[in-house]
Structures are given as C-alpha cells and as structure tokens.
What does this fold into?
Amino acid sequence: MNIIDRNNTIGTVVAELPKATEIFKEYGIDYCCGGHRLLADVIKEQNIAGAEIYEKLQQADEERKNLYFGQENNFKEMSPEVLSAYIEDTHHSYLRKALPDTAELLSIVLRAHGRNHKELFEIYRLFGQLKADLEQHLLKEETLVFPIVGEAEENLKEIKDLTHEIITEHEAAGEILRELRSITKDYQLPADACETFAKTYKNLEEMEQDLHQHIHLENNILLAQYSDR
Ligand SMILES: [Fe+2]
Ligand SMILES: [Fe+2]
It folds into this structure.
C-alpha cells in the first residue's frame, strides 16, 4: 500500500503515518474531523504550499520505511517489537488489500470464463478458504501474539502454545498455496485468458511469494525459539 497515495483520505494517511499529524498541524489542516477528505483535495486547497506538504509527507514516509528496510538483511538483529511491527506494516497490510482485491477479480473471472474453465471453481473455493483462514490468522497474531512477543519471559507458556497454533495455521496456508499452484499449472494462463484473468493469476502468484517471506520471518525468526518442532 502506498500510504501517501493522493486518493487516500487524510485519516488513512495519519493512521498509517503518525508523523503526518505534525505536518498537517503545521499547515493548519484538520485531520481529525476533516479526516474523510482526500489527500489530493487537501493538497489542492493549499495552493502553492500543497507541493511542499506532499514533499514533507514523502520524506516522512521514506524515513518510516528506512526504519525497517535499512535493516532489511538484518531481521535477526531486530528486536521482537520492531520485527513484529515490520511484519504488520508490510505483510499484513499487503494482505488486507490483496485478499479482497483478488477475491473480487476471481469472481469476475469465474463468471466470464467458468463455463470453459471448470478449474476456476476449485480455485475459487481454495482461495476463499485461504482468505478466511488468513483474515482470522492476522487478527490472532496482532491481538494475541505480537503484543506479548517482546515480553516472552513472563508469558512463556502462552507464547509457546500460540506459536504451535500459528505454525500449524501457516502449514495449512502453505498447503492451499501448493494446491493452487498445482491446479493453475504453475499459474500458466490458458490461451483464451483475458486481461482480468492474467491479473488474477499474477495476484495469486505475488501473494504466494509474499506469504513465503512473511511465514519465514514468523516461523524462523520471530517465533523460532518458542517452537517445539
Ligand atoms: Fe503474520
Ligand atoms: Fe502468520
């Protein structure tokens, strides 16, 4: 997700980029009651200052990214708090957009091509399962796991039990991804595929890649020491 997309509301910008509050305050922009307004409109209203505001937002966004990406190959050095914030900020927010977007595309493709490509029904079913499982899973991590992963000493039993559950859920997701890859013959498009069909397969394949990295960070780094496997 591009936080400072001009089509985002300023409420979204502030929620995702805390430093934006300072910038909006500086220019007297109401981001609270006026939070539903689009960034594009707010910038336009500010006339000449608009470009300056956007530049400052870009800079704040860069700084936010560097906080994590500067340590990109250094996930192992991150504290559990920083690593879990990174996972939530990148992989969870990616899924929160990609899952519903892909579900919508898939239903469009199925309506248009389902008659000639019966495999789409199985893809639809599997993806629906993956989506429901992951939506629950993300909430579980954000509500139960991430808040205590930095204070594991006091919560050792709980974190071990949760780790077991989380890893089991990762394995279930991995299995669905394998099935999807097999049914789609490694995401090979049929000859009569339209653009939406191609975009759907591209999304599914990207999601697979992203999930592999996401699960790797959780299983092998964040929770590795609490796993009994
Ligand atoms: Fe996660
Ligand atoms: Fe996970």
